[in-house]
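Repro:
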Amino acid sequence: MTNIVESWIKSQTDCGEPLQNAVDNLNKDLGTQYSTSRIGAWRDGKRSIPKPVTRYMIEAALYWVLKQHGLDGMPDNDDNFYTALSNDLSPPDVDNL
C-alpha cells in the first residue's frame, strides 16, 4: 500500500529530479533540516511525521496522486476511487509510538 510519503517522493522525483532536491525544497519551505534518511523513516513508518510536514506533502502530492488515479473529473459515487485516494494520502502506520 502506498502512503503519503511514498506519494510525495514519487510526485517530486517522477520528472527525474533527485530526492535530495525535494528534501532541500521541503527544508527551505518549512524552515527545517530533515535528511533523506528521516524521509525514509517516515516512509517506512519507523517515525511519526510532523503535522506541518504531512500537510506540505499532501499539498505537494495531491495533483500527482489524482493524476495517477486517472482523475479527469471528480467522480460522484466511486467508492473504490475514494478508498484508493485515501490510502495513498494516509500516513504510514507507526509502530511503538
